[in-house]
Amino acid sequence: MERLARREFLVAGAAGFMAAMASDMAGKQKAQASEKRGRGSQAGEEYEVYAIKYAGPFTSKLAMVLWMEGWDQEIERNYYFWAIRAKSGETTLVDTGTGPTEANRRKLKNYVNPVDALARLKVKPDEVTRVVITHIHFDHVGGMEIFPKAFPKAKFYVQRKELDFWIRNPIAKRRPFQGITDPIANKALASLEGTKRLVVVDGDKSIAPGMTLLLAPGHTVGLQAVMVNTAKGKVILASDCAHIHRSFKEDIPSCLITDMVAWLKSYDKLRSKTEIDLIFPGHDVMMLEQFPKVAEDVTRLA
């Protein structure tokens, strides 16, 4: 009897140990899956993310947005900026769109003043507290012509490398670069230097709970993406780190390259942070066509 009791005790103990091991393994697997989805690994608020189309569609050769691929194919692209909304209503804008002066000069198709486009989301001007400038090309920084006045409580975030290149480097005045920026917007941005309204960033930086800037050069010298916590997981607004989503899947940038090696490393960096389907590019029509519409030319991405 004593030997039998001892045997039962050992069997029960082994069963308990195996159950504990299984529970621990399940917990680890669950944690790994959670991290892969981008959940829970960064404390902070969950945000809602919106894509706001302000111009387009425009038609070009596929090779323009997918390097050396599809010279005989055409593709449509839209111009966007993005809104990140907290539960409180506090809003961070990612990029500024194109200003009215430059839009008129370029005769942008179906152009809407970005301030008016944002109003469709019923965002009040004083709710906009941050504006992240991903890079200093006309279709992403041009709204600086009007944004500082339109959103008086907003601070503007830009990478130091990006600011120094476009504002101070004489190379930026040469034709390949000069044709894709907006002198009016650049002047407005430079005028904020030395004030509390311009935050110059060096590399990756957390700017709010659950919201991080990620340096991702290649398209330009100091392009930055924005990573935010959402109910879906970590969403990355990559702007023109890719013009279309295929670039992230196929590892091919667009033809508008400053540094190809840096660009491919930026792909590695962003893809390591979250699921590939939660990384959003700068100009893909799928953001307008494949996500819930909440207002005219406004969709909810997460």
Verbal overview:
The chain is of the alpha/beta class and 302 residues long. It has two domains: 1-37; 48-300, Ribonuclease Z/Hydroxyacylglutathione hydrolase-like (Metallo-beta-lactamase, Chain A). 34% of the residues lie in helices and 25% in strands. The chain is built from twelve helices and 13 strands. Strands 6-5-4-3-2-1-13-12 form an eight-stranded mixed beta sheet. A hairpin with a 2-residue loop joins β12 and β13. It is globular and about 45 Å long.
Question: Which terms summarize this structure?
Answer:
five-stranded mixed β-sheet, 302 residues, disordered N terminus, eight-stranded mixed β-sheet, alpha/beta, Metallo-beta-lactamase, Chain A, 2 domains
Quick synopsis:
Helices cover 34% and strands 25% of the residues. With 302 residues, it is of the alpha/beta class. It has two domains: 1-37; 48-300, Metallo-beta-lactamase, Chain A (4-Layer Sandwich).
Low-confidence runs of at least 5 consecutive residues = 1-7, 9-23, 25-42
Mean pLDDT: 90
Provide the spatial order of strands within the biggest beta sheet: 6-5-4-3-2-1-13-12
CATH topology of the largest domain: Metallo-beta-lactamase, Chain A
Number of domains: 2
For CATH, the homologous superfamily of the largest domain is named as Ribonuclease Z/Hydroxyacylglutathione hydrolase-like
Tell me the distance between the termini.
Answer: 64 Å
